[in-house]
Design goal:
243 residues, alpha+beta, four-stranded antiparallel beta sheet
């Protein structure tokens, strides 16, 4: 797991080396010397210059980008097949964000590790991901290959998210907002959770929709996509504006 804020995820009173060595000592039964050697290799892998000296430093002595690279190295320590990256660039400036994302891409290809990227940044999703899962109120409401999702969104929430992204070269366009408030997850409704905010809601939406297949790789949890639906989401979304 790579957390979004490395300053609060790293222990401020332990040196980088001590924190990096721990998974090797606890889970791989390496000696301290072997753990040190492996930790230095990992720091070098994630692009940290002079890794041996960085091992002797505390988190506050590193920049935000370097701390995030240390977190990535720690996450890779036990050779995971699955890596969760929770908003890994939130606390970083734009230039460092690009570097970290490029590093994740490189590691994905180099180590053959599957990366699940959790983010609200649709630009990052477009540039990084092969498949997208859109979640609302703790449920997957749409899943699709990234290009198909951006070209033909089939859930009103997905459509609203895409409409809220500013378009380059069109400053005159007013940004779309999704009206209403997120649902109360302590007292969830029995029907579709998006009903109070959905401009396309129908009476059948009072019943919880199943996950419907739009195509072999595209599923959506919305009654608009049911074969018996009187409305087509594509027609409705086109009438409401182009994505």
């Amino acid at each position: 797991m790579i957390f979004q804020d490395p300053m609060t995820s790293l222990n401020p009173v332990l040196k980088i080396g001590a924190q990096l060595n721990e998974p090797f000592l606890e889970h791989q039964n390496l000696s301290t010397a072997e753990a040190n050697e492996r930790a230095v290799e990992l720091l070098r892998l994630v692009g940290i210059a002079d890794p041996a000296s960085r091992m002797r430093q505390y988190p506050h002595q590193l920049s935000g980008g370097m701390r995030q690279r240390v977190m990535i190295a720690m996450a890779l320590a036990c050779n995971p097949r699955l890596l969760f990256a929770d908003e890994p660039t939130t606390a970083l400036d734009v230039t460092v964000q690009a570097q970290i994302l490029e590093l994740l891409k490189k590691l994905n290809q180099q180590l053959d590790t599957t990366i699940v990227l959790i983010t609200h940044d649709l630009g990052v999703v477009a540039g990084m991901c092969r498949k997208v899962f859109v979640m609302y109120a703790g449920q997957i409401v749409e899943s699709s290959p990234v290009q198909q999702l951006y070209a033909t969104p089939c859930h009103p929430y997905t459509y609203g998210l895409l409409q809220s992204v500013p378009l380059p070269g069109k400053p005159e366009n007013k940004l779309h907002t999704i009206e209403g408030q997120p649902p109360d997850l302590i007292a969830p409704s029995s029907g579709c959770a998006f009903i109070p905010r959905c401009q396309f809601a129908m009476e059948v939406c009072l019943e919880a929709p199943p996950l419907l297949s739009v195509s072999p790789e595209h599923q959506v949890r919305c009654w608009l996509n049911h074969p018996d639906s009187p409305r087509s989401p594509r027609d409705l979304f086109t009438a409401g504006g182009q994505v």
